[in-house]
Amino acid sequence: DIILHLTVDKPVKGWNKLCGFVPTITKDVKPDPTSWCIVCGPPIMIKFTLPVLLEIGFAHDKIYTSLERRMKCGIGKCGRCGIGSKYVCIDGPVFSYEELKKIPDAF
Predict the structure, then answer these.
(1) Please, are residues 76 and 101 in contact by the beta-carbon 8 Å criterion?
(2) Which residues, 6 or more positions from 40, have their beta carbon under 8 angstroms from its beta carbon?
(3) Nearest CA to 61 among 96, 33, 30?
(4) Is the peptide bond prior to 43 cis by the omega test (within 30 degrees of 0)?
(5) Are 2 and 28 in contact (CB under 8 A)?
(6) Helix residue ranges per DSSP H, 2-82
(7) Percent of the chain's residues with pLDDT above 90
(8) Residues near 102 by Cβ (< 8 Å), separated by ≥ 6?
(9) Are strands 37-39 and 18-19 parallel, antiparallel or unpaired?
(10) Which of 13, 36, 68, 95 has a C-alpha 20 to 30 A away from that of 46?
(11) What is the pTM of this model?
(12) Sign of CA dihedral 6, 7, 12, 13
């Protein structure tokens, strides 16, 4: 089963789902650390959500996130998405936290 939590930072008319900053909501929701977690959003959100997931007890290989924001050409030619020895467009764009720990300046 998939449990999806959609959020916005500030209340918007007609929005009836979660509202607030993702790290805070993650602490409140308390996802099951034996499951998998996929975090999608802007880099600053991901940066501050990852430590919360680790604090909850998620294994490093069960947290996944996307780095597609760094891509431009999408085929490994322009080099814009290069991070350490990885190219997001070729090696990703989805990486586990276990992989991210080995990539300098991923966030």
Answers:
(1) no
(2) 65, 66
(3) 96
(4) no
(5) no
(6) 22-29, 43-56
(7) 65
(8) 84
(9) unpaired
(10) 13
(11) 0.85
(12) positive
